[in-house]
Amino acid sequence: MSTITFESVQLNSHLPQLVRRIDQEFITRDAVASLDFNPIHVDPVWAKKVNLLGAGTTIAHGLCTVSFLASTVTDWCYASGGFITRIESKFVAPVRPGDTVTCSGEVMELHPRDDGKSFVVIELLAKNDREQTVAWAKAFVRLPSQR
Amino acid sequence: MTEQVRLEDFILTKKQKEFERDFFKGSEHYQRWEDVEFGRVWENDRRFTVEAEDILAYSAGVGDENPLFSDAEAAKSGPFGGLIAHPIFFTPIVFWLAGDEGPLSWLRTPGAINPGGVYEMFEPIRPGDTLRSRAHVKDKWIKRGKRYLTYEVDFLNQDDTLVVRLQATLILPTSKNDGTHQF
User: Fold this and answer.
1) Which residues of B touch A31 (CB under 8 A)?
2) Chain A interface includes B82 (CB < 8 A)
3) Per residue in A39-96, pLDDT tens?
4) CATH number belonging to domain B22-172
5) Domain residue spans in chain B?
6) Rounded distance, CA A23 to CA B61, Å?
7) Which residue of A has its CA nearest to B112?
8) Is B63's Cβ below 8 Å from some Cβ in A?
9) Of A31, A64, A79, the CB nearest to B79
10) What is the pLDDT of residues B32-42, one digit of tens each?
11) ipTM for the predicted complex
12) Domains of chain A by range and CATH?
C-alpha cells in the first residue's frame, strides 16, 4: 500500500469501498463489543413486539455503521499516520439483519496548514443493498505532510 | 423465524463479563427525558481502565482487522508505536461509565434510538489509559411527536487530558404512563 500524505491526496478522489454483511450474529457481537445491549438490537422477540421503526426486526447500532465509515478512512490512511479528529454523522435509515452495507468516501476539502496539522474532509456514505442511503458522515482527517 | 443468537457466546473480556447486560433491570431508575436537568456538569466515580483486550474485542466486534487496532505486536512497528483503539471505541467506554442511574443512564433506555452525532478525537486511546467522563445536557426538544435529547460527554485520561468529546443525541421513548409510545 502506498503512503498517504496530505500532498499526495487529490480533491474528489475516492477511498476504497468497505463492505460488511449484517446478520443478527454480527449485531449481537457488536452489542457485546459496544456494551450496548439495548433490546432493539439484541432481542428479536421484543423488537417484533414494539415494531419501533417498522418491519418489526432488530436494527444494527447506529454507531456500528459509523464504525464502518470510520474503518473506511482508517483502512485508507492510518498505516501512513493519518488520524480522524472529528466525525459528524447522521443516520437516515435503519440497518437490519440481512442487509449488506457498502461504505464509500470522497475527499471534498483540502486544508493545508504550516504547523504539521494539514487535514482533509471526507464525505462518507453508507448504503444498503437496495441502494438506499442508511448513513452519511463527514470525517476530518489529519494527514502527515511531505514538507 | 427468530434467529437463536446468544449474547453469552460473544463475551471476551473481563468488563463484558461484569457488565449488567439486562437493560430492563433497574430501568425505573434511569434518568428520564422529562427529568433531565440543564446547567449542571456531571461527573461520577466510574473509571474505564483500557486493557489491550478491550481494544482487541472492540475491533473484532465491528469486523475491523487493521493491525493497528487488532495486533499488538504488529502495531509496534506502525506509526503510533503500539496498539491504539479504533476511533469508535468510545462506545463501550460511554456505556461503562454511564452507570444505571442519574445523567447518562438514559443511554440504557430500552428503545432509545440514535439519530446521529458529532464525535471529536484529540488523542489516540491506548492500553493503560484510565478514562473518566464529564457530561452536560445541551438541549431537549419534541419534533414530530418524538422526544430528543442532546448531550455532550468529555472523556479525560489520567493526566486530565481531553481525549474524546461526544455530542450525542437520542430519541427517547415516553416513560411516564400517559398511554403513548410506552414500552
Assistant:
1) 7
2) no
3) 999 999 999 999 888 889 999 999 999 999 999 999 999 999 999 999 999 999 999 9
4) 3.10.129.10
5) 22-172
6) 13
7) A38
8) yes
9) A79
10) 999 998 889 99
11) 0.96
12) 6-142 (3.10.129.10)
